[in-house]
Every structure is written in structure tokens, then in C-alpha cells.
TrEMBL record:
Keywords: ATP-binding, Isoprene biosynthesis, Kinase, Nucleotide-binding, Transferase. One of its GO terms (molecular function) is kinase activity. The keyword Repressor does not apply. This is 4-diphosphocytidyl-2-C-methyl-D-erythritol kinase. The active site is at K12, D137. It comes from the Bacteria.
Length: 293
């Protein structure tokens, strides 16, 4: 297989994120995570090359060898017994440290494409094992559909049907929140998470109104303590006429708001940028580029 491959990867929001205090053997928290893919895409192009190279556009602050994409390519090549003789170029649109899973999306999409290139299926157990070694969110991006992940938030437990919820994504100014910092902050004031059964039932029934009413994230208070702008964005968004429900995604600092229509999400996002100067993006919770309006 060869030649050039181009893959688009969505980002994610957490519809339910329940962090437990309990840690696994890696020191990772037990996490109940219901994620949905969101139509804001990074693009990854893979081509034959003498040796592995990874380039990000725009450039990252970390060297290529420290990226999730490099780690994913090396670990998968080792696992499948091949040479990682490819050049990988990532064009990133998903903002960093947002809770949108940008670096995990890039790694997951790289694994999907390289698995195909090297003769394995995207959900081959060896590919899934590599994804979990790269990061907790990466397994979701091997097959980005609305789904429940248990374990450390990295074990696929149930897949749901597609649900095209209109969302506005809004980020406060300043530094985002790294996942590690949010988990460390959570440990200072741990809470017991709510149950995820009801939102899973709503997703099984494709009941958008019920899903909206059941959004949950007990990592959000830690994100707001680390980046108070998160709470400011959430409070402002909740007051807007188009907003049905607002919630921090993952470890923040991005807040997502579910609206009745994509038009409403667009007006809200435009107002957030024009009046407050915040980064924003209006879209749908779907994972395939061709399904975006
Ligand atoms: C907050 C979420 O985005 C929710 O989907 C994820 O739990 C974070 O996933 P991620 O960004 O892929 O996180 P990783 O890169 O694997 O881990 C970064 C750091 O977060 C902490 N971490 C992450 C996941 C987890 N279940 N428990 C943890 O304690 C660990 O300190 C880890 O060193
Ligand atoms: N492929 C990549 N894309 C973006 N950042 C990367 C990548 N690989 C490593 N990094 C580094 O990881 C940092 C962001 O990691 P972090 O896990 O906190 O956030 P994220 O992946 O952008 O999304 P999330 O907040 O959902 O976890 C970046 O600032 C960058 O230094």
C-alpha cells in the first residue's frame, strides 16, 4: 500500500466525564467518559519517505520526537514489525489544551492510517494497545463515534448512534489547561462522580433533549480553578438566548454550548468573538467531514 494517504480527524467533547479517585497501575484515574466526535477537523497527510518525519502546521513548541504522532508511529511500527518509513504532516485547526483532544485526535488518526498502510485493521488489538499507551483519549479516535469508554476513559465499552447536536465551542483568553494539571488539581479536592446510565440510555434512544439535560463533568471545577476564564465563558454563554446548556469539555479550557440549530450556534459563536474577543467555532457533533453542512 503505498503512496499518499490523507485523513481528517474530528475533535471530541465529553458529554459525561466522571473522574474517580481510584488510580490504576499506571497512576491513571478511573474515568467514565461518554464522548462525541465534533466536526472541527485536523488533516493528516502520510507519504512514503526514507525515514520517519513529523511536521505540524502551525509549528508546535515541542520537537517532533515529543509529539503524540511520532510516539504513535514508532510504537505501532515496533508492534507490527515494520520500519516507520513515512513523512507525516499535520495541519492543525483543533486548539491545544482545550479539552477537545487535539493531540489525541492526531495520534488516533495517524494510527488508523498507518494500520491500514501496514496491513492491520483500525481496531486490531495491537493497534488499540498502542493507542492506550500513547494517551487516554487516543483509543476513542481510532473509531470516533459517540461512545462510552470506561477503565481510564480508554476502554471502549459501548458505541451509540450518530447524534448531530449543534454546538458552539468557546475558549477564554490565555493559557489552556493541560490534562495532567487538571487531574492533579482534582486530587486536591476529589469528588465522587454521578452515574452515567441515564445519559447512555438517552443516547441509545437518540433523545437529544434528554442528552442536553444530562451533561456532566466533575473535572470542570478543577479546570475552572486553574483557568478562571473557563467559568467566565460558561457563565456568559449560559445567559445567551441561543444557549440550551453549557459545559466545560474534558479538562478545559474550552466550553461547549448546545443550541437548537446550527444557525443559533453560529450566531452565539460570532457574538462571543465579536463582543468578548474569545476564540469560537460553531459546528455539529458528527465525525465525518461529508456530513457537515
Ligand atoms: C480529560 C480527558 O481529556 C477526558 O476525555 C482525558 O482523561 C485526558 O486524556 P489525555 O489528554 O489523552 O491524557 P494523557 O495524555 O493520557 O494523560 C495526561 C496526564 O493526565 C493524567 N490522567 C489522564 C487520564 C486518566 N484517566 N487519569 C489521569 O490521571 C495523568 O497524570 C497523565 O499523565
Ligand atoms: N500532536 C500534537 N498536537 C498538539 N500538541 C501536541 C501534540 N503532541 C504533543 N503536543 C504537546 O501537548 C500539549 C497539549 O497537550 P494536552 O494533552 O494538554 O492538550 P490537547 O491534546 O491539546 O487536548 P486536551 O486538552 O483535550 O488534552 C501541546 O501544548 C504540545 O506541547
Amino acid at each position: 500500500m503505498p503512496g499518499r494517504q490523507t485523513v481528517q480527524t474530528p475533535c471530541k467533547i465529553n458529554l459525561h466525564l466522571g473522574i474517580h479517585s481510584q488510580l490504576d497501575e499506571r497512576g491513571y484515574h478511573r474515568v467514565d467518559s461518554v464522548m462525541a466526535p465534533v466536526a472541527l477537523f485536523d488533516t493528516i497527510v502520510i507519504e512514503d519517505a526514507p525515514v520517519l518525519s513529523v511536521t505540524h502546521e502551525p509549528a508546535l513548541c515541542v520537537p517532533p520526537q515529543k509529539t503524540t504522532v511520532w510516539k504513535a508511529a514508532c510504537l505501532l511500527a515496533e508492534e507490527l514489525g515494520v520500519e516507520p518509513a513515512v513523512s507525516i504532516t499535520v495541519t492543525a485547526r483543533i486548539p491545544e489544551k482545550a479539552g477537545l483532544g487535539g493531540s489525541s485526535a492526531d495520534a488516533g488518526a495517524t494510527l488508523r492510517a498507518l494500520a491500514e498502510r501496514w496491513g492491520a485493521g483500525p481496531l486490531d488489538p495491537r493497534v488499540v494497545a498502542v493507542a492506550r499507551r500513547v494517551g487516554a483519549d487516543v483509543a476513542f479516535f481510532l473509531d470516533p463515534v459517540p461512545s462510552l469508554h470506561l477503565g481510564a476513559g480508554d476502554v471502549l465499552t459501548e458505541r451509540f448512534g450518530e447524534l448531530a447536536l449543534p454546538v458552539a465551542l468557546v475558549m477564554p483568553e490565555g493559557e489552556g489547561v493541560s490534562a495532567k494539571a487538571a487531574y492533579d488539581e482534582f486530587d486536591l479536592e476529589p469528588t465522587v462522580p454521578a452515574d452515567y446510565d441515564a445519559i447512555c440510555e438517552a443516547l441509545r434512544a437518540s433523545d437529544a433533549a434528554a442528552v442536553r439535560g444530562l451533561l456532566y463533568n466533575n473535572l470542570a471545577p478543577a479546570a475552572k480553578r486553574l483557568q478562571p476564564g473557563c467559568a467566565e465563558v460558561e457563565a456568559w454563554m449560559a445567559e445567551q438566548p441561543e444557549a440550551l446548556t453549557a459545559m466545560v469539555t474534558g479538562s478545559g479550557s474550552c466550553v461547549f454550548v448546545i443550541c437548537q440549530s446550527l444557525g443559533d450556534a453560529r450566531s452565539l459563536a460570532e457574538r462571543a468573538t465579536q463582543k468578548r474577543g474569545w476564540w469560537s467555532f460553531a459546528t455539529l457533533t458528527v465525525g465525518e467531514p461529508q456530513k457537515v453542512c
